[in-house]
Design brief:
alpha/beta; 2 domains; binds NADP nicotinamide-adenine-dinucleotide phosphate; Rossmann fold
């Protein structure tokens, strides 16, 4: 038994530190001594009671961590106690110890701080599954990754470039557009300015975009359909602009578009493991050589989780926010 401290949201506006113990790891699992935990929008919704975790998940918040391996299940041979790793958790990341399947873990390069490592698993997997698998983005194609200033978008632009695609993006101010362009986006439009479609038209991209990762939904959807190329694929993963969209279906059949989406929390364990294997092959070498760099805006002590959530809610961050779980 190992002692653990974790965060429990007793109400949407109060967080308590709770003590318990963790038993031996499952056969395919690792127990991680958590240094940092990544914050995701889903955590904010879970705190507010709007996104209950799946039944088989830990009720403790936190979907991704980095740290060192503290214990191994008997089937785990890829890692050793003390290895530095990052991992996707099935909940339970806001804690001093977290549990993850070994095939949902990635070894951290020596040069990468755990603060940065915690920013990777959820974003890598979300982009890989939605852009490269569901969206079938191929080398030489053009992809629009909305929200280049977001945790997802800041990694997504870099992944698209690494895979040989032309990346376009959107962000909410000229400074944020410039910062997203620096990550490798060839053109970044300002989604807070009127006429997003017009901005892309003027830049010569409207009607020529093969894959679109939509993080906002609502009224953005028709713009996506108008921006897409013939046989384009639109993948929706978020609804910050609304769950309902009014779209012109003629655009879909005239251009033979595909509209799809997914949510990572509901993706089967084996599918996640398969995606991690692809990430190891196609993306991890670029992480090791520094071509892809996780962007961490700020790190908060785990006890200040409500402040950190407030920061994300305000939308002032660029890239990811993480929690430091070492001093809890
Ligand atoms: N389905 C899944 O499996 C999955 C997994 C992970 C994340 N997500 C979703 O993906 C989205 C991004 O997540 P994240 O953690 O990367 O979020 P984040 O870091 O908080 O970033 C939010 C992004 O949304 C942009 N944005 C805000 N309001 C917008 C609007 N009205 N129209 C267009 N863009 C707007 C922001 O741009 P500016 O701040 O520059 O204005 C920023 O780039 C969230 O909706 C999240 O729920 C889904």
């Amino acid at each position: 038994m190992m002692e653990r401290r974790y965060i429990e949201f007793t109400t949407p506006e109060s967080a308590e530190v709770v003590d318990d113990t963790v038993g031996a790891p499952g056969d395919d699992d690792v127990i991680i001594s958590v240094h940092h935990a990544g914050i995701n929008r889903a955590d904010l919704l879970q705190r507010m009671g709007l996104y209950p975790p799946p039944e088989d998940a830990s009720p403790i918040p936190g979907l991704e961590v980095s740290g060192t391996v503290a214990a191994l299940g008997k089937n785990v041979s890829d890692f050793a106690v003390g290895d530095r790793i990052c991992a996707l958790t099935h909940g339970g990341g806001y804690a001093s110890l977290a549990i993850a399947r070994a095939d949902h873990c990635l070894p951290l390069p020596d040069s990468m701080a755990t603060e940065q490592g915690a920013a990777l698993p959820e974003a890598l997997l979300t982009v890989w599954y939605n852009v490269f698998e569901r969206g079938r983005l191929a080398s030489g194609e053009t992809v629009l990754i909305h929200g280049g200033s977001s945790g997802i978008g800041s990694i997504g632009i870099q992944m698209a470039r690494t895979m040989g695609a032309i990346a376009l993006s959107t962000a909410g101010s000229s400074a944020r557009c410039a910062a997203a362009a620096k990550l490798g986006a060839q053109y970044v439009a300002n989604h807070r300015e009127p006429d997003l479609l017009g901005q892309f038209s003027e830049a010569g991209y409207a009607g020529n975009i093969d894959v679109i990762l939509d993080i906002a939904g609502g009224d953005l959807m028709q713009t996506n359909l108008d921006l897409a190329a013939q046989d384009g694929r639109i993948v929706c993963i978020g609804v910050m602009r609304g769950m309902q969209s009014e779209i012109n279906l003629a655009t879909v059949f005239m251009k033979r578009l595909t509209l799809t989406g997914s949510t990572l929390r509901r993706l089967e364990t084996a599918e996640r493991a398969r995606c991690f294997q692809s990430i190891r092959e196609h993306i991890w070498p670029a992480i090791i050589n520094g071509t892809i760099t996780p962007i961490v805006d700020a790190s908060y002590p785990l006890q200040k989780v409500l402040e950190a959530h407030q920061h994300m809610q305000s939308g002032r961050h660029f890239g990811k926010l993480v929690l430091d779980c070492r001093l809890i």
